[in-house]
Amino acid sequence: MSQTATDPRHLRTPPKRQIRLTWADERVRAIVWQVLIVGAVIGVIWWLVRNTQHNLEVRRIATGFGFLNREAGLPIGEHLIEYTPASTYLRALTVGVLNTLKVAVVGIVLATTLGTVIGIARLSKNWLLSKIAAVYVELIRDVPLLLQLLFWYTILQGLPGPRQALNPVAGVFLSNRGLKLPFLDWQVAHSWALLAFVAGCFATWLYAKAMRRKQMQDGRPRPIWPAALGLLVGLPLVVWSLGGAPTAIDWPELRGFNFRGGMTISPEYFALLIGLTTYTAGFIAEIVRAGILAVPHGQWEAAQALGLRSSTVLRQIVLPQALRVIVPPMTSQYLNLTKNSSLAVAIGYQDIVSIANTTLNQTGQAIEGIAIIMAVYLTISLSISFFMNWYNSRIALVER
């Protein structure tokens, strides 16, 4: 082992070079350029603001968000919260935001499920299944989304009327008025049971985390399913029973020229959901396929050498490793699906874009209306990115 002593002069921090107020000093040049660029950006923003204010004053156009408290007079066919044309513009825009979230959340779940299945099918050893999945991916990705939305909407509008509605299952009717489904006669007990289920999910997550921590300490696995069964099924059932155990179901019935009762999925929402789901699923399928192929083939061989079935290897070994490759590009697809939902205006679905456009046409508050649309999509996109980045950090490999 070398005993060579280190020269103490090499341990000293070199003295900092003082800034010279001359253009030859690169640090002075960097500061000057940064100040100039920031000043130019501020100047452009100031000019745009002043120019906009001047043009609005010349045309006597009111500014501000005071119009939000005025009566909207805007009919909205689908709304998750109580709404009438006598409601304010603020409530109308809130309905639009909820309609957008209804498409985005359900679409993300369905597109992820369908895309994962198709991506796995493309790697199947069954030649026919693999080719069908490949044709689906190539066909869906090569046709513009707007054309697909118009295609599905045309198909749904071409269905027979309510009197000749398709009835594939008892209580389910499909017509040009939409899809009618039986639904619970929702009461307070159902709301409390739903809250109990959400609380049970959170408690199950905490319990599973505590059990894994104990397993890491003593090496003894502990079953989680008994506690999960009690928290996810038993607790909601107890709350539901204490609330009177209501079981009434609202069945759709044909009365006159349309159905009454049950739950209605409008043709506009149905077409938008199908189009967004099938289109995004084609891209997710390729992401899933690439993620699985990124896992070394030796993982498959080692697992099969232990006698594990292919389905078990895929579910327990390959997919958990592939997630580290899948999650980052999957985030982009979730954002694309959310932003592509703005095409709903083409088929008449009243999302935030449609309602905001009608609002700005009625009030003349174009800048405020566009700002509201931008703020809504920015908030939703940042929320999705934050959640996916958090999840990606949870599954990332930790280097020692």
UniProtKB/TrEMBL annotation:
Which InterPro entries does this chain map to?
A: AA_ABC_transptr_permease_3TM (IPR010065), ArtM/GltK/GlnP/TcyL/YhdX-like (IPR043429), MetI-like (IPR000515), MetI-like_sf (IPR035906)
Q: Which GO terms describe its biological process?
A: amino acid transport
Question: What molecular function does GO assign, one term?
Answer: transmembrane transporter activity
Tagged with keyword Transcription regulation: no
Can you say where in the cell this protein is located?
Answer: Cell inner membrane; Cell membrane
The residue ranges crossing the membrane are: 30-49, 103-121, 189-208, 229-249, 269-288, 370-391
Span of domain ABC transmembrane type-1? 97-388
- Source domain of life: Bacteria
Q: Which UniProt keywords are listed? A: Amino-acid transport, Cell membrane, Membrane, Transmembrane, Transmembrane helix, Transport
Note the topology in the membrane.
Multi-pass membrane protein
Under Gene3D superfamilies, the record lists: MetI-like (1.10.3720.10)
Extract the Pfam families matched here.
Answer: BPD_transp_1
| GO annotation, cellular component aspect | ATP-binding cassette (ABC) transporter complex
Family, similarity comment: Belongs to the binding-protein-dependent transport system permease family. HisMQ subfamily.
PANTHER family in the record: AMINO-ACID ABC TRANSPORTER PERMEASE PROTEIN YHDX-RELATED, MEMBRANE COMPONENT OF AMINO ACID ABC TRANSPORTER
- Protein name (record): General L-amino acid transport system permease protein
Per the UniProt record, the source organism is Muricoccus roseus
